[in-house]
């Protein structure tokens, strides 16, 4: 795998709503899940703008509007971006040292679940700041 892998997740939901499944092969990327957290990104806000020094991370993003993913490999100035439109879900595998950020460019809330292979206390996290997307004035 490269520094980052982006996979569209197939929706096998029905009239009740969307439903997505993460394969065993994808879960093996983390070896053992040590941390799970989930949240939302409000319109015009950015989350991330960091990299993890030791841990790998897997993001699951559910969207129904426009958003942008930015990433940069360790020891490079090059920032890559990918814009997503419409609705769906993606799985993003991120190796240690790869900076990443998500910006909600739309008007609907963006939902995400993050899983990682290591747990760190809040007062001594594994994350280091690297600005990939200017957060602007986020109050």
Task: Describe it.
By secondary structure, the chain is mainly β. It has one domain (4-129): Jelly Rolls (Sandwich), CATH 2.60.120.10. The chain is 3% helix and 43% strand. The protein has one helix spanning 24-27; strands at residues 4-8, 35-41, 46-52, 57-63, 67-72, 80-84, 88-94, 99-104, 110-116, 127-129. Strands 1-7-4-9-2 form a five-stranded antiparallel β-sheet, with no helix packed on it. Strands 6-5-8-3-10 form a five-stranded antiparallel β-sheet, with no helix packed on it. A hairpin with a 7-residue loop joins strand 5 (67-72) and strand 6 (80-84). The protein is globular. The relative contact order is 0.32. The mean pLDDT is 94.
